[in-house]
Amino acid sequence: MKTEELAKLLATGAGTVEPDAVARRYATALGWGAFGAALLMAIALGVRPDIHAAARLPMFWVKLAFAGSLVVAALFATSRLSRPGARLGWVPAALAATVLAIWLVSALALIGAAPSERERLVFGDTWRSCLLSIAMLSAPVFVAVFWAMKGLAPTRLSLSGAAAGLLAGAVGALIYALHCSEMAAPFLGIWYVAGMLIPAAAGALLGPRLLRW
Amino acid sequence: MNKEGRGNATEERLRELLIRGLAGDTAAYHVFLRDLSAHLRAFFRKRLAGLPDEVEDLVQESLLAVHNQRQTYDAGQPLTVWVHAIARYKLVDLLRRRARRDLLSDPLDNHVDVLSAIATEATEARRDLVKLLERLPERQRLPIVYMKMQGLSVVEAARATGMSESAVKVGVHRGLKALAAMIKGER
Fold first, then answer.
1. B-chain residues near A7 (CB < 8 A)
2. Helix-, strand-, coil-residue percentages of chain B, each rounded to 5
């Protein structure tokens, strides 16, 4: 087939493309992924029994705001990396600022605490299950976001995979926060961040293989 | 006119054609793809001086990618930047597969270059897309043959194939994606 003929073939009956096609694709992926993660959380872990009492504490909302901010920033990163030539702009700074903010609060909490309490603020009761649960809950989101990105056009595959994995991890952490009873900032700053980095690292490794187009 | 000035005029014209094409103007979209292929050919020819036989295949692969991935073009973004990122991705992908980056005769970094030259005379593509099309399953091949090659409407193609209208549309879409995947897989 000549290139001239290919151009004609592709143009014939090409139809219209919605300007918000990328956003809709990610909305679908996040909807299904978060639904899967919430279902998994409800079945495997359960919502924390004292959620009504916890919802009156500011730290409960700090947790949600922390994970939620990372979801938003990672979503921007993921959708920009899905478009050839789009710049990341302020997005890496926003991701870093969110993590630095929680680390700042963590440092203040540790400085203000008695030395004997510090270990408890860092490790809580559940650091191991926190890591594994965030990684587990991110799995359905990971699959959905990779599906969405695969149909678009990422050109930096490791970075794109890492961003997609971080988005999955942040959604996993957001859902996990409804189960988790830890309320100390240092715990969030270490174990939540580490939990999200597991799918991010997996994404960076799998990106070059799974996202090629 | 200097190179950049000419690039800007081309950018404006092609961008407008693409935007009209995305809104459903297939005549404008056809002109866009045809003219873009001449720019892509010049871009690849300059950079693949050591692999002249690969140029036309890469032009076709990139054109198919531009079409399949066209929903990723953001109207607020310069067309040059978008096209350059796609052309560069496809070129690097080819070179990586051939592990011969040293054949590159010109740096890849400047996106202004991508629309600055035209090469209208195509050489023969080595890979025949018609042969690849024949390997697609019927539910993808027939919609492409009727709609894209014979120019039937969705309704007519649905009647001719006995498929539903949505199955015809899905068949075209998936078939073109499958074609791109076959190109990727054969190397």
1. 30, 33-34, 37, 63
2. 75, 0, 25
- Residue in A18, A84, A152 nearest the CB of B82: A84
Cβ of A10 within 8 Å of Cβ of B149? The answer is: no
CB-based contacts of A13-16 (< 8 A; 24+ apart in sequence): A13/B26, A13/B147, A13/B148, A13/B151, A13/B152, A13/B153, A13/B154, A13/B172, A14/B21, A14/B26, A14/B29, A14/B67, A15/B24, A15/B169, A16/B22, A16/B23, A16/B24
CB atoms A21 and B71 under 8 Å: yes
**Contact (Cβ atoms closer than 8 angstroms) between residue A125 and residue A191:** no
Distance, in Å, from the CA atom of A110 to the CA atom of A103, rounded to the nearest integer, reads: 10
* Separation between Cα atoms, residue A96 and residue A98, nearest integer Å: 5
ipTM of the complex: 0.87
Asked if A210 and A146 touch (Cβ cutoff 8 Å), the reply is yes
Chain A residues close to B118, C-beta within 8 Å: none
Task: Look up residue A195 and give its two tokens.
Answer: 């939990």
Domain regions of chain A by residue span: 36-210
A183: nearest Cα among A131, A108, A120, A134: A120
What is the pTM for the complete model shown? 0.88
Mean pLDDT by 10 residues, chain B (187 residues): 65 94 95 95 90 90 95 92 95 80 61 78 81 91 91 90 92 92 77
Whole-number Å distance between alpha carbons of A21 and A13:
19
Token look-up 């399949």 returns B68
Cβ atoms of B168 and B155 within 8 Å: the answer is no
Instruction: Copy the structure tokens of residue B119.
Output: 């090469």
